[in-house]
Amino acid sequence: MQKTSFWKAGHTPTLLAAFFYFDLSFMVWVILGPLAVQISKDLGLTAAQKGLMVATPLLAGALLRIVMGVLVDHLKPKKAGLIGQLVVLAGLAWAWLGKLDSYHSMLTLGILLGMAGAAFAVALPLASRWYPPEHQGTALGIAGAGNSGTAFAALFAPALAMAFGWQNVFGLCLIPLGVALAVYLIFAKDAPSAPPPKSLVEYLHVLKDRDAWWFMFFYGVTFGGFSGLASSLAIYFNGQYGLSPVTAGYFTAACVFAGSLVRPLGGRMADRIGGIKTLSIMYLLAALFLFIASFGLPSAAMAVVVFVLAMLALGTGNGAVFQLVPQRFRKEIGVMTGLVGMAGGVGGFYLASSLGFSKQMTGSYQLGLTIFASLALLALVGLTVVKGRWRTTWGSAAMTTARI
Predict the structure, then answer these.
(1) How far, rounded to the nearest angstrom, does the alpha carbon of residue 176 sit from its chain's CA centroid?
(2) DSSP code at position 401
(3) Inter-residue contact 272 to 259 (CB < 8 Å)
(4) Where are the alpha helices (DSSP H) in 329-365?
(5) Torsion sign (Cα): 49, 54, 57, 59
(6) What are the pLDDT digits (tens) for 150-165?
């Protein structure tokens, strides 16, 4: 039974500040996706180049999450987040004022934008350390709902690019990110209790635990699917159905909003019925809808419905994974957030780049979507393999008050 209500159990200003910081960081992280149609037209990019361009921030963000995970434990979350935000602001200023006239310059920008994706490794520990085990799913679901920033990018970036030019969009992004930095500095606070910092060698020890690899794989599918589609759907709707960049952005925003807004629901559902049960259902649904989408639906409206359903499953799964991680690795939550988040970014990079290569090699997106749907089924099999052991060891009633 829950001993205290959620809103009395932690520190609400920090939770909301973490959400806001995470939200706008993710908006910037995937902004090349909604702008890709206009950028590729000006620079003459191929389908594979478009796919790799929008996937580069995902891979860079994945690797930088490890760095931020280390900084979180050594400097505490608030200071680590401040460093990350300053790097992102500097990168946006360069993108706005610099010379972005080649494919390679866009890849360089993608690497810089990866730091925004590393916000994940800050926002979640910042919120998590304030809450007891029975509220972890809800707290991390709310903080993690910053995924909705990807929808803002899809909603506003294409229209702003048409009005002001796509390069000026990077300058406009400095305004909301400056506001987020101010809110973060004023309201976010580090939790009074935190695990002592570890040496860099000690961080490698967690990789000797097989459960760490399972969580990395599980999140590589749920968040990889979410972030990969968030970065690629504008290109997909433009290439598959001939929609304008602005309309493709609106369709993408509808899909991404669905996936991001249910992340708290996924955490809450996992708190109520257990993370394993929630995640199992979501993998099955995600695989089903991605398989359906892979066949190329006859209209854009039908495709939106199917992708919304797939994103609902993936977004709920994101929340469920991070209901489980703090139960298993509470003392290593900083490094595990970085590792698991890295795996999610790698999954997103794979999906976004594979869709571009699939389109260029076969003329359709079917192969890329089918393979990723198969990975969701493989994750379901893996979860079935480990659930008995998890529920009788660290997830037993004797070890935690949370439902596993």
Answers:
(1) 20
(2) S
(3) no
(4) 333-362
(5) negative
(6) 889 999 999 999 999 9
Distances (CA, A) of 216 to 105, 357, 386: 31, 25, 14
301's tokens: 């409206």
DSSP 198-232: --HHHHHHGGGSHHHHHHHHHHHHHHHHHHHHHHH
Name the residue among 330, 318, 343, 315 with its Cα closest to residue 395: 330
Q: What is the average pLDDT score of the chain?
A: 89
Model confidence at 399, in pLDDT bands (50, 70, 90)? confident
Is the confidence at residue 395, as pLDDT, over 70?
Answer: yes
Q: What is the CA radius of gyration of the chain?
A: 20
> Using an 8 Å Cβ cutoff, are 402 and 323 in contact?
yes
Quick: pLDDT tens for 17-70.
999 999 999 999 999 999 999 999 999 999 999 999 999 999 999 999 888 888
What is the separation of C-alpha 305 from the centre of its chain, rounded to a whole number of angstroms?
21
Burial annotation 108-143 (CB, 10 A radius, 16+ → b, else e): bbbbbbbbbbbbbbbbbbbbbbbbeebbbbbbbbbb
CA torsion, ordered 199, 204, 209, 215, to nearest 10 deg: 100
pLDDT given at position 1: 41
Q: What gap in Å lies between CA 361 and CA 272, rounded to an integer? A: 45
Q: Which residues contact 204 (CB under 8 A, 6 or more apart)?
A: none
Question: Pick from 230, 286, 26: which is nearest to 144 by CA?
Answer: 26
Token duo for residue 46:
């191929």
Alpha carbons 58 and 343: distance in angstroms, whole number: 10
**Per-residue pLDDT tens for 314-350?**
999 998 998 888 888 877 776 787 788 889 999 999 9
Any idea which residue has 């298993």 for tokens? Answer: 328
- How many CB atoms neighbour CB 6 within 10 A? 18
Evaluate if residue 224 carries a pLDDT over 90: yes
The CA–CA distances, whole Å, from 353 to 48, 230, 359, 369 equal 7, 12, 10, 11
